[in-house]
Amino acid sequence: MGQMKPLFSRRKYWAHRFGVAPVLPISRKEMDDLGWDSCDIILVTGDGYVDHPSFGMALIGRLLESQGFRVGIISQPDWKSAEPFRALGKPNLFFGVTAGNMDSMVNRYTSDQRIRKDDAYTPGGEGGKRPDRSTIVYSQRCREAFGDVPIIIGGIEASLRRMAHYDYWSDKVRRSILFDSKADLLLYGNAERAIVEVAHRIAGGESIDAIRGIRGTASILGSQELSEITPLWQVMDFSKLPQQDVRIPTTTGRERGMTAIRLPSFEQAKRDRRLYAHTSRFFHLETNPGNARALLQSHGDQTLWINPPPLPLTTEELDQIYELPYTRRPHPSYGDASLPAYEMIRFSINIMRGCFGGCTFCSITEHEGRIIQSRSEESILREIEEVKAIPGFTGNISDLGGPTANMYRMRCKSREIESSCRRLSCVYPSICKHMDTNHKPLISLYRKARELPGIKRIFIASGLRYDLAVRSPEYVEELVTHHVGGYLKIAPEHTEEGPLSKMMKPGIDTFYRFREMFDRFSKKAGKEQYLIPYFIAAHPGTTDEDMANLALWLKQNRFRPDQVQNFLPTPMSLATTMYHTAQNPLRKVKPDTDEMPVPKGGRKRRVHKAFLRYHDPNNWPLLRQVLVAMGRGELIGSGKDKLVPAEQGGSRSRNREKPVSGKRGGNVRRGRSR
């Protein structure tokens, strides 16, 4: 598990002589046009094929192509039979399977478990083009199509379901997706290093069953294989709840590289919610690639083995990946059909990866990690020049960002401290003193990008971490003066300490500091611009009282959210653990730990959502009932200190509040947030 080879240092596979494909083929005819008799690797995805680095299959496909492999793509196949999975013939090396850029259950269902009518990753936005639990279904069909071909699963669905996990849609703990998909290997996180090594090793004649120990991979070990491997390792058993506070033993150097943590088994985690929370805590403590140890989790008589996370890519490697020969367009076969997810990012540039915020409701940490991986300024500017050639470009770049808008080139000041750190967040409860929060590289990038010929405006649409931004008034002024299109989205998420502490988000005072800067610099620039805040309803740790206080704050600040969303428990996040177990995995979980409040059930979640839309007359009857039951009847009536009007004559009050727009108004939507 030592250092891996540089990503582009391997000798290319012999098939590189076929050259670069204009687009990766999705049909036999396209293969014939390229002179291919077969594909070395076939990637199966639940998304429409867009040859753009923001789409995982295009990025992985072009990366494998750069290694010399012939890569075909089966996009959104009809999963009702195995025949569509034979469309490109039998792959010489393996099938790579993913649900797409989103977990298929998140893609298909709302937080209220209603089926979505559309799909942003499908041509025409048409819904229903992928099955529930797509990774599992696609893998099974690949096995039916060619039973002897290795199957490797990856992408965010596999990544977030790599171990025993709570599944919101079935309301139960499910086993690792490796078992249900019957795949041979799972790749998690940003898998470039792993997929390149696996591809070359299989191409070199190595059996998929012999490929173990690669960072960022997980596999299933039978009892015989486990008995052969574990004597070489120091296995630390944390499969039981601690009876008292215990310090997790630390390991260093080679010792850590040969140390594994035994977690509670799937059966234990499924049966005991405290053990599930204990498992989640240990999992999240082992996510730093500098000190993470391998994880073992029994599932019956087999054992899931999860290797430590992948090592971050260097700036040079990231530049090379993003400058592969993408067309940056949907596959030509889609014709004029609009692909909403592509339209959203068509004129945007991804400048970095990762997020060290650690928000408990967000899955970025579990997938991309906390260490920021940034592209070079030169590479980003070159991509802007390429975007200018895309049909329909009018001179506006829609975003320069990533998971978070303003973490570009930020990282720990000390590599030694970074490699030994076990904090779950670098910014909560306060910004770590070792974190370099310098915004100057980002300011420089903004200024150079604006100076490029043909560029009119560059907007910043990614979620802004405003607790970092307030440390750099120069950055806030640069942003507000040049990169805000009238409205800026930010995410306080809540106002009350109870839910904020469970989210690992800063207090509302930080929002006030940022708002003061935003208003001051907007006025200085002679612009009328507004903040659009996002809030979460029904997050674990939130009480009815918390939501009532948030609603009062919204009214006092003249915010009237339009479309709002309840907390969605996505697989394996810390907040999802809180939702399922009513335990707080941010602390040690013991047999006698108290339960926390968790808004569950249809009515409770409707109530919390209604508080966010306190101004909607349709919500007034429900809110009146709840406020009376809470003993907060004083909030019913007329006046600035009231939340909803009193009922008049047995019907809704005629004193309906009309939606307002302006500095504290607007259409507040729930979207990407940090």
What does the model show?
- The structure is a single chain.
- By secondary structure, the chain is an alpha/beta fold.
- The protein has a domain at 1-216: Response regulator (Rossmann fold, 3-Layer(aba) Sandwich).
- Residues 650-674 have low confidence and may be disordered.
For the biggest β-sheet, the strand order reads 2-1-3-4-7-8-12-11-10-9
Instruction: Please state the average pLDDT score.
Output: 93
Largest sheet data: 10 strands, mixed
Strand content: 5-15%
CATH architecture of the domain at 1-216: 3-Layer(aba) Sandwich
Approximate helicity band: 25-40%
Task: Offer a concise description of the structure.
Helices cover 32% and strands 12% of the residues.
Which descriptors apply to this entry?
single chain, 674 residues, alpha/beta, Rossmann fold, 10-stranded mixed β-sheet, two-stranded antiparallel ribbon, 32% helix
Walk me through the topology.
Elements: H1 28-34, E1 41-45, H2 56-66, E2 71-75, E3 94-98, H3 104-108, H4 134-145, E4 151-153, H5 155-160, E5 165-167, E6 172-174, H6 177-181, E7 185-187, H7 192-203, E8 217-221, H8 223-229, E9 234-237, H9 253-257, E10 259-262, H10 266-271, H11 273-285, E11 294-299, E12 302-306, H12 315-322, H13 340-345, E13 348-350, E14 352-353, H14 364-368, E15 373-374, H15 377-387, E16 396-397, E17 399-401, H16 415-420, H17 440-450, E18 457-458, H18 466-469, H19 473-482, E19 487-493, H20 497-503, H21 508-524, E20 530-535, H22 544-556, H23 574-581, H24 602-612, H25 620-630
Parallel strand pairs: 1-2, 1-3, 3-4, 4-7, 9-10, 10-11, 13-17, 16-18, 19-20
Antiparallel strand pairs: 5-6, 7-8, 8-12, 11-12, 14-15
Helix pairs in contact: 11-23, 17-19, 19-21, 22-24
